[in-house]
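B., you asked whether I could sanity-check this one before it goes into the benchmark set. Here's the sequence:
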Amino acid sequence: MNTASNKRKQAIMAASAEFLTRVSGRQSLITVTDADVSPDGRNATIYISVLPGSANKQALEFCNRQLSDLREHVGERVRLRTLPHFEVALDPNIQL
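And here's what the prediction gave me:
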């Protein structure tokens, strides 16, 4: 991964984490753990972990309902040539 791609990934992760912290309720803790951005910058997957683990399904549904607002928030915070379409997924590397 080159420096520009890494900076884009880190900026998207930071803006996504800021947004999810602001809009999520206090019933679960949603943490952005990673992001994958396609080479052309048109698609991005945000990986999250959720505490408590029993709230995974509800948190994922909540995040998916917020995708348009997340995209708008990232577009306001991060200067990108192409604003990607987002997906949210549970981080497969985190076992709770």
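One thing to flag: The mean pLDDT is 92. Otherwise nothing jumped out at me.
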